[in-house]
Automatic annotation (TrEMBL), chain A:
A Pfam family matched in the record: VWA_CoxE
Positions of region (Disordered): 106-128
UniProt source species: Kineosporia mesophila
Protein name: DUF5682 family protein
Alphabetized PANTHER family for the sequence: OUTER MEMBRANE LOLAB LIPOPROTEIN INSERTION APPARATUS, VWA DOMAIN-CONTAINING PROTEIN
InterPro entries in alphabetical order: DUF5682 (IPR043737), LolB (IPR050458), Uncharacterised_CoxE (IPR008912), vWFA_dom_sf (IPR036465)
Membrane-spanning intervals of the chain: none
Automatic annotation (TrEMBL), chain B:
Source species, domain of life: Bacteria
Biased composition range(s): Low complexity: 1-17
PANTHER family according to UniProt: MAGNESIUM-CHELATASE SUBUNIT CHLD, MOXR FAMILY PROTEIN
Renumbered residue ranges of the record's region Disordered: 1-20
Protein name in the entry: AAA family ATPase
Pfam families: AAA_5
Species for this entry: Kineosporia mesophila
Amino acid sequence: MVAARPYLIGVRHHSPALSAVIPALLDEFRPQALLIEMPPQFARWMPWLGHPRTVAPVALAGSGEPLPFYPFADFSPELVAVRWAVAHGVEIVPCDLPLADAGWGERGSRGPRKNAMADGGPPVPEPAREDLFSRALRRSQTGRDGDDLWDRVVEAPAPGATPEQVRRAALAVGWAMRADEARNGRVAGVDLRREAQMRAVVADQLSRTPDARIALLVGAFHAPALVDGDGVDPAGRKRAAPLDAPRPVPDVTTSLIPYADPLLDSRSGYPAGIRDPRWQAETVRAGGDPARVSSAAVRIAVEVCAGVREGGHPAGPGEAREVVRLTEDLARLRGLPAPGRSEIVEALTSVLAQGEMLGRGRVVAQAMEKVLVGERRGRLAPGTPRSGLGPSLEALLKELKLPNPDQPQRKELRLDPLRSPLDRRREVALQRTQACGIYYALPADVQGVGAAAALTTLWLAEWTPSSAALTEIAGLLGVTLEQASEGTLRRQRERERADGGSTAQQVLDGLLAAAGCGLPGLAADRLDDTARVLPATATLPELLAGLDLLSRLEQNTVPGVAGHALPDLAVVMEEVHTAAIRQVDGLAGSSDRADARALLALVVRHDRLGTGMRLDAALKRLATEGSPLMRGAGSAVRVLLGLDDAAGLGDRAAAWLDLDTPLELAARLSGLLIVAGPLLEAGGDVIDPLLARLELMPDDLFLRRLPAVRGGFDVLTPAARARLLAAVEARLDDRLDLVMTTDPVLLGRWAQADAHALEALRERGLASAVALAPADRWRLVLGQKQDQLQGQAKRYGQALDELYGQGRGEGSGGDLGGPGAGDGPSYPGVREWSEDLTQLFGATVREEVLAAAAAGGRVDAALAIDPASARPSVELLTSVLSLAGALPERTVARLRPLVAKVVSDLTQELSRTLTPALTGLTSSRPTRRPGGPIDLHRTIRANLKTARYLPDGTPTVIPEHPVFRTRSKRTTDWRIILLVDVSGSMEASTVWSAITAAVLSGVPSLTTHLLAFSTDVIDFTGVVSDPLSLLLEVSVGGGTSIATGLAAARELVTVPSRTMVVVVSDFEEGGSIGPLLAQVRLLVDAGVHVLGCAGLDETGAARYSVSVASQLVGAGMPVAALSPLELARWVGEQVR
Amino acid sequence: MTETTGTAATGRTVATAPRQVDPPEDRYAAELEFLAAFDDGARPPGWKLTPRAVVTFVVGSERPLSLPQGREREGVPQRRTISEKFVGERALVERCVVTLAGERGLLLVGEPGTAKSMLSELLSAAVCGTSGLVVQGTAGTTEDQLRYGWNYAALLAQGPSRSALVPSPVMSAMSAGAVARVEEVTRCLPEVQDSLVSILSDRRIAVPELSGADSAVHAAPGFCLIATANLRDRGVSEMSAALKRRFNFEQVHPIADIAMETALVRRQAAAVLDRVQAPFTVDDSVLEVLVTAFRDLRNGSTVEGWEVERPSTVMSTAEAVSVAAALGLAAAYFPSGRDVLSLLPGHLLGVVRKDDPADAARLLGYWDGAVRRRAERGGRLWRQVWELRDRLEG
């Protein structure tokens, strides 16, 4: 093989070692023709590719499927050979299969490959394969397990070797790989076909000039197939026969475009890349001289250390020196003449990363990537013909009859991509121009029918001069619209990765874009991301959005990829779904109705997959330990899933009516009804016990419960309530028929007697003034058909309508079910209403109704609450405070007394419980336990009884019991930084944080800071002792960036080991998770005591993102839902 | 991770009472002697073997090695296979050896149960012939244990003198030019850890109580330090930057290959049963289920690529061994009892439910996901495991 004719140079597409020796090899052989593994259509580009003024990296691309893409850098042997041939005027003959030839479609048992040229190098070995020869070769070498055989055998030993030695090593690797492939029967049909073509070209050359000196530059894997004679090619018996008549060479578009280092790196996702282009280029520049390779390693070590320093971590010349020492010694131990890529990467990791994957490790990895990848851009020689994206896009637009440079006029396009194939191509093309950032077409919204997404699309397209200009920019990333859009989207993905990882939202957007642009490969990658990122970081709404998108893909309603089955779609769906189930735990503390709806949406999907034990256990916890809302929702969901029976739920719900805490009752009922509303409408087991309980309640008890129950039922839409009322009325009518067993005359007398007795009781004030029939009770509860109410009952209805109004959703327009609520005269002002409430329900209920109205946004109601009689509750405080944000200063002043009263009550109450947890500190003391320095005085005093004179007269003490000093701990100067998330609504946690901070600020040895953050951070440290003004100044809303908050907290840290940082948040981080974890890591690394509070309130139940929280725990921040007392205990433990 | 070789053939006589565990320098004395004769290339000062031979000692030789011509020695066989002692990446061992050869501190970090301590024992036994100069780091470790202490009786009676000074293992290693080991260095208080800084940078320990030549102990050539640290319990976070800078960090990962891990679990569990003279009768397929479950929960994803939620507990190989041994003991002592497999879910729950109650829920999730899917795919054993799910509830 080595001595074969034609002269063989086996290469890998990127190989610094071979690139360095090829000019010498060619100089020595002096070929008359250079045959090179490239499709013949590229022949016209050869003079430009080898042009002395063309600066690598550049790329050759053609059209076809799979998309042929051949990037070239200074370390590509082909480029070096082409340059040599151009400089020496030697003919270059591309000898591979023509692009678009049928042969490319011949698949063997080897899987499809991404790129034609990548197989010049050895494929990545799979673990299960029986690779005898490569194993034998590998065993003779040493290095990391994952290392490439080529790297170990060809690249690493190359410095200092002769050109011929390098050529032989490369041929040997190619032969070994081929032998293994042949043994396993895995040489692909396409490879055999290509080799037949190469042999044909060689034969053709030889037939024209029999004695020509021909050099053949092909992938090392193919080299053995190009040698005549048995015994050389291990796959010899499989050789494809030459075609009888050569197929005509199809006409395809080809382009030569400039390229860039970051795209060349194999991690960029571009085809035919190589790890760390900068290092490879340095090796070529060293030209095989071990000393120069070593000095390149020194340069890189110093630059990486500088990069790490820039990242804020110490790394100086000392570290750089150690990196170099380790690099060289590793090379020496492995018997290499000069360090290879593997050695330098290992040494950098060992010395600099310090075993921390998140904090310092990330910085080191970023610095390494920046230094080793490089930033060079290629340039074409002046005069190179125009090619690439521009011409191909124009042709495409003309073909699709879309606005183009010849007909630039604006067009409105209504497309139906799922029916018409042409529309589908247009849709995909328009999506792609959007993805490329070419200003050309704008989508308009189309309303879907009902809840379903629209199936047609509407676009406004126009060709403008800026379309042309932006096309040139997008052209860097690809030569066809498909390539360029994939390039842009992949770059986007890369950028997300560099910024610390994609967020769940970015992943979903990316998946949608990839699918819309008809890029199945990228969509599959994004699907991988989905499976990776969503379970780890997404919140429940994001997971549900993800499930929606995935089911759209599954149902083939995304035009771009309709018809392409994405691999593993079902598995990913299941994974995302499982992740959503995990989030159920995080809902326990929620009081947001949207979360109850999300829970319902989740279990509706769950039906398809069956109930798992995990969901069962989670729901059980939710139903017994959650917030009132989630208890109701959880119980109802269990019934929907068939985990509990309906009658049991009905009984439990009926028992809730006996709760004397109106807010809790209302919340539980809301939760129940959000989930099980339709179940109730249908009547049956659930509703019977409720019916019975509501009807049998004494009137005054019913009236006390009424506001809360009405509040609970308010979650249903008016139409749903109307239907429910109809169902109830039907049942009531039914029942009347059943009890007619007594004599009607007797019944009549009983009724008369009852009426008399009731009258008598009323006169003495012993019974409530109204008698409410069951149907009327339900009308009041449901706020429906109140026109049928009589007298007093009607006033109750009106008083509550003032609070609840008409309701939202279906039927709220008032056109259903006739006149409903709110048709009576409403109150002229809150004063009249408030008086009416007192008269009808009593003072307690009045406060409660007014508080509920304040929570609903009625300022006047809040102003009507009497500070003196108001019960101090956090709920009241949060609702009043959320009003205060939007009010003029004058009105806030009037609210102040109420807030002040509630805050001071709560603060007093809390400080009573917290203070004991924060006192009692220890000091140093003597001990018998050896631990600290010896206390000589005490030791002598304790052992005086052993004192005696030695024979020489000196006194001596035998220390039977030595006494030591314990280390005294410094207990002063602790600093606690409360970092409070105010991005959502004004929540109980915020209130508790402020109050807790106020109590903590009263502890003398503690400096308390309070930072409120959303995407900005505001320092409230100045007013921390005055929770009233603090709470009135906090403005809620905005996104969540916990990382920003932590960064601000880090600036306050002076003595890390005596600083506590407590983050109060729901951990639904808006940005990517990487920076957040890095910030946590930085704090933890510095020795700061950090704690995450998923919720800070009395219940200790919280609503938070389970996935993010568990990642934070991994980064070293424990996360728990705490009560203020537990927090104070934690603080006490740290300080003590 | 260890291979038992007899001590009968050792050149050194071990005339001691039977021990539960032999230190590696005794256990592998014959191999060490062979390697010393096998490779007589250049050695760093104070080393008993060449760096290349140290690597061979730790990762083993696949084939028998033969002594080169003219280097035969009495009592050393001509050919010998070096057993594999550390199952892991060769490059990692190479980096460790090169670090030590440069007399720099080596810090092995990793999850518990990844054989960090064993690797450090093997390295020190091979480099200097003893693995005994060790300090175990705990919260109660004092500076005395890293630097020097005093014989208080002598100190009180005669005042400070060299004879009243009690050297620490680290100090002993310094004067002998040997390898000192500090286990679990991160569990020491930070101020105690920092006493290593001056040892690693100045290479001497000052004894201010003494004067003249005794006032400092200098490190002889060959002295170096191997520390291990557990990523889970304290991490390296509290180490000072000054100390970190003086170490090269090597992360030891769990065993990558399932077959190797299963074999290891079987070997070690059998060894445990061997000690009580009972045969290890647990079926290989049960062990495979066990090891697979451990690996899935440890990696956060299954072999099939399914996502698994990781419990906060460490699912170390060592822990898998103890479960396998427990299964073996159950089979040995209660032979008529139930199927061994039926005990597995209970044991797994016991391993997982250590500090976070949510971990039990994660195990349920594992059963819902990976176990169910495998059962659906038709693995008979996995179907049995899936049917055992009721043992996890409650």
